[in-house]
Amino acid sequence: NFWLNLLGRFEWVNPAGGGEQSLQPIGGLVYYVLSPRSLTGVMEDPLKAFAYLGILVAFCVVFSLTWLEVGGLDASTVAGQLVGAGMQIPGYRRSGRSVESVLKRYIPVVTILGGVVVGLVAGVSDFFGVFGSGMGILLSVGIIYQYYEILMREKAAEMYPAFRKIFGG
Question: Residues 31-57, buried b or exposed e (16+ Cβ, 10 A)?
């Protein structure tokens, strides 16, 4: 069937050390969505590597744009937060619309650039066979950095008790 072959074609593969047979993708979309897993795999099939990287980067950009809207990080929400905090941009009126117009120039571009960088880092680390995959490393770094921020905030609150009111503690 044409549509099933478009999704993926598989063949049975015997493992080198013996054991059970497994299905290995040899074509279709599934073949290009799976990482080459090594630099040798990238050299053997560069089309697969670039297709995988392109698909991964595209999904990262779409996810980052979605997160921008869902997470309340779009220009209008951030502008409202800045105006509510009493901040303004020099040379502009102190209204949400002027701040929003300035933020609309930067936030989408930075979001797309961030999605591309995350996708490239995750994809290239998959090519080198990094332990835990690229996405796992990015997730781990994000979690560790959040813990670092929490520890620094608590340390600052201990050293300077007046900051507790600012930090909400």
Answer: bbeebbeeeebbeeeeebbeebbeebb
Question: 3-state class of 88 per DSSP?
Answer: coil
Q: How many of the other CB atoms lie within 10 Å of CB of 127?
A: 20
Query: In sequence order, what are the beta bridge partners of 13?
Result: 22
Q: Is residue 41 part of a domain?
A: no
> How many distinct helices (H) and strands (E) make up the chain?
8, 2
Q: How far is CA 161 from CA 33, 148, 167, in A?
A: 52, 19, 10
Q: How many domains does the chain have?
A: 2
What type of residue sits at position 156?
A
112: tokens are: 């797309």
In a domain, 163, yes or no: yes
What is the residue range of 157's domain?
Answer: 131-169
- Can you give the pLDDT at residue 164? 66
Task: Return d(Cα 159, Cα 149) in angstroms, integer.
Answer: 15
Please check whether residue 10 lies inside any domain of the structure.
no
How does pLDDT run across 79-126, given as a tens digit for each residue?
Answer: 888 888 777 778 877 777 888 888 899 999 999 999 999 899 888 888
